[in-house]
Design goal:
elongated, 34 strands, 13% helix, Type 1 dockerin domain, single chain, 7-stranded parallel β-sheet
Length: 429
């Protein structure tokens, strides 16, 4: 029986522990491990043609990955699926402060004590950030192409990570069990329940890539205060619950669920999905809901509202053909619906539940771009979108916010309006 168990264990190891693709030409898939070994704090399985690095001793604080041992190349453990190779961060749960490599290593390199995998020219993948590295802020080096799965895992001191938008982050669980991690500055393209597993202090995120399509999008981080979501991001299901956001812009989504957001005051939604169901519930300080796009004439939107005692207004921008319906609100404040046109479906829905309905004015007072007769943060957002080319303003709107008289919206106009809103200047004229 013991012999049978030993054979099965040996066979399973042969399947799971395989070398990187660079050594794929070696006939190793059928190899059985010869022995296990611990060399300079690193744990290996020795095979006939290579050494597979499997782990690190608990008391090690610094290790050097050799290029070879006894003439055999050293590789990190990995697993294979039918179509992909998954590199394993074998340094999880360790006390390492740095991971170094020998200078002549052709496939692994260390930059500031962080391990990278370089399988070919032009590819540099962040493989493992040391768990006990003392730095609290880390910037991923230029030239990095990927952040691999669990690259940042069990990082006890790390508070902030920054990387460029060219870095591919479409790998599950890149950040996990990082108790102090608060901010991620860079565009994350993988958004799921495991994207930031057990990172309770996260408060700043930037999600999305150009034309990114996601099956699900979840924001359930209790300390999350700021999130940026690129305009072209698309997801089937969007969920936001139990976070600290005060303002949220939801990407294009078929179903949206916003619940138990205790600090949420302003919610931006898009009304350009062919058929959209939106449910908002138990957000005690939510004051305003804004449907911003309305570019698709045949869009259909159903809005369900429950437990919104502070809601004051819902604003729709869109074509008259856009079909928006509000289901019977439950436990909500008496709010008013504003619309940029005479939307028959929306108006009938409001009349059914005795919700006041008003058409937005075409005349804009100074500082007011949105047409709601006041100058506030929503107007600043509209100016910034116009500056970035994401929104076109009419000549009347430009006149309302052209404080420097140059005939166009710019950063100076946005700054002036923000100063007025926070009380640094008394007038806009």
């Amino acid at each position: 029986m013991k012999k049978l168990v030993s054979c099965l264990l040996t066979a399973s190891l042969a399947v799971i522990i395989l070398p990187i693709q660079a050594y794929a030409e070696n006939p190793i898939r059928s190899e059985n491990p010869i022995r296990s070994a611990i060399i300079n704090h690193l744990e290996y399985w020795e095979y006939e043609t290579y050494y597979a690095l499997e782990g690190v001793e608990e008391d090690a604080v610094s290790v050097v990955i050799p290029t070879e041992i006894d003439g055999k190349p050293v590789i990190l453990a990995e697993t294979h699926s039918d179509s992909e190779v998954y590199h394993l961060n074998v340094f999880q749960y360790s006390n390492l402060k740095e991971i170094l490599t020998e200078e002549d290593n052709p496939y692994y390199t260390s930059i500031d004590g962080v391990l990278f995998y370089t399988p070919e020219e032009g590819v540099q993948q962040l493989l493992a950030y040391p768990c006990a590295k003392e730095d609290t802020v880390y910037t991923v080096p230029e030239g990095t192409t990927d952040i691999l799965s669990k690259a940042f895992c069990d990082c006890q001191n790390l508070e902030s990570v920054s990387f460029s938008d060219s870095v591919d982050t479409n790998h599950a669980g890149m950040f996990c069990r990082c108790p102090a991690l608060r901010e991620i500055h860079g565009t994350i393209s993988h958004v799921g329940s495991d994207a930031l597993w057990e990172c309770p202090e996260i408060c700043y995120l930037h999600f999305g890539k150009e034309n990114l399509n996601l099956s699900s999008f979840e924001l359930n981080f209790p300390s999350l205060k700021t999130v940026l979501i690129d305009e072209d991001t698309v997801t089937k299901n969007f969920v936001s619950s139990e976070n600290a956001l005060k303002e949220l812009s939801v990407p294009k989504a078929d179903t949206v669920e916003i619940s138990h957001c205790q600090n949420l005051e302003i919610l931006h939604l898009r009304n350009d999905s062919p058929k959209q169901t939106i449910q908002i519930m138990d957000c005690p300080v939510l004051k305003e809901i804004i449907f911003e796009d309305g570019k698709t004439a045949d869009s259909v939107s159903t809005l369900k509202l429950t437990g919104l005692p502070s809601l004051e207004k819902i604003t729709y921008y869109g074509t008259e053909a856009y079909r928006a319906e509000i289901k019977m609100p439950l436990f909500c404040n008496h709010f008013t619906v504003y619309c940029s046109n005479e939307n028959t479906v929306l108006k009938n829905s409001c009349e059914k539940y005795q919700i006041p309905f008003q058409i937005l004015s075409d005349e804009y007072s100074i500082g007011d771009v949105t047409g709601d007769s006041k100058a506030d943060i929503l107007d600043v957002i509209a100016i910034n979108k116009a500056v970035l080319g994401k929104e076109n303003l009419t000549s009347e709107q430009v006149k309302a916010i052209d404080f420097n008289g140059d005939g166009k919206p710019d950063a100076s106009d946005s700054l002036t309006l923000m100063k007025y809103i926070v009380g640094l200047i008394e007038t806009l004229t």
